[in-house]
Amino acid sequence: MSRLTLATLRQDVIACRRCPRLVQWREQVAREKRAAYRDETYWGKPVPGFGDSRARLLVLGLAPAAHGGNRTGRPFTGDRSGDWLYAALHRAGFANQPTSRHRNDGLRLHDCYVTACARCCPPGNHPTGRERANCQPFLERELSLLRQVRIIVCLGGFAWAGLLHVLRTRGDLPRPLPRFRHGAEAMIQNYHVLGCYHPSQQNTFTGRLTESMLDAVLTRARELLTR
Q1: How far apart are CA 90 and CA 99, in angstroms?
Q2: What CA–CA distance (Å, rounded) separates 25 from 38?
Q3: Is the predicted pLDDT of residue 201 greater than 60, yes or no?
Q4: Using only C-alpha atoms, what is the Rg of the chain?
Q5: Shortest CA distance to 131 belongs to which of 169, 170, 157, 158?
Q6: Which of 133, 185, 204, 221 gives 20 to 30 Å between its CA and that of 196?
Q7: Residues 170-189, mean pLDDT to the nearest whole number
Q8: Cα 136 vs. chain centroid, distance in angstroms?
């Protein structure tokens, strides 16, 4: 039943045109393309979540990359951020392979589901507050459908804030509100929430986020799941 409903949600995500600015941008990027991908057909639509419908771990990002998820149609696929994330998920035992190149590359996630607060690539990688609000119902539905999720890893402050917005609609939040930082932990409602710097090139190229730091967060998630 949950798989069927997740499939319905997937179609609703793909069909969404609520945000004119994002629709215009994602389709422009898909038409103009990056030179390295000029022979590829870009996805150019909102990007649905991906992973195990029985997952206990949810990984929450910001939005698809213009030439990553917006090109391939799968979160964190075909870009440097995805190279880091899926390699780390593989090392932690949540993925069957360390690479994520395209939708049909054989990647499978075990006990893990990957999604984002915004489903379209935004100009400058910055969705507006209204655009985040427009996408919020999709994340609300995912959390309702992914009934076994216990751990949520938020990749960056935008994802952390987006999750708090969603959880506020489901019940009370702790006071004071838990603040994002790398390595942050908070028990919010029934979820153990972990903070991790986003594996963007801005963070990985500068050393703000290292492989060992990312591994430590996912190792902590694995430890919590064994309790």
Answers
A1: 9
A2: 17
A3: yes
A4: 16
A5: 158
A6: 133
A7: 96
A8: 13
Strands (E), 28-183: 50-51, 57-61, 112-116, 151-155
Provide φ and ψ at 88, rounded to 5°: -70, -40
| Strand segments (E) across the chain | 50-51, 57-61, 112-116, 151-155, 185-188, 191-196
Which residues sit opposite 98 in a β-bridge? none
Side chain identity, residue 110: H
- Global pTM value: 0.95
Given this structure, which CATH class describes domain 2-225?
A: alpha beta
Q: Supply the pLDDT for residue 166.
A: 96
Among residues 53, 73, 63, 82, the alpha carbon closest in space to that of 214 is found at: 82
Helix (H, G, I), strand (E, B) or coil at 10: helix
CA distance 49 to 135: 12
Give the distance from CA 158 to its chain's centroid.
Answer: 11
What is the spatial distance between Cα 5 and Cα 32, in angstroms, rounded to a whole number? Answer: 34
pLDDT, tens digit (0-9, with 9 covering 90-100), for 3-54? 469 999 999 999 999 999 999 999 999 999 999 999 999 999 999 999 999 9
Residue with tokens 């997952």: 55
DSSP, collapsed to helix, strand or coil, labels residue 152 as strand
Q: What is the mean pLDDT of residues 176-197?
A: 97
Burial of 116 (0-12, 13-18, 19+ CB in 10 A): buried
In the numeric block, the tokens 């028990």 are attached to 187
pLDDT-derived band at 227 (thresholds 50, 70, 90) equals confident
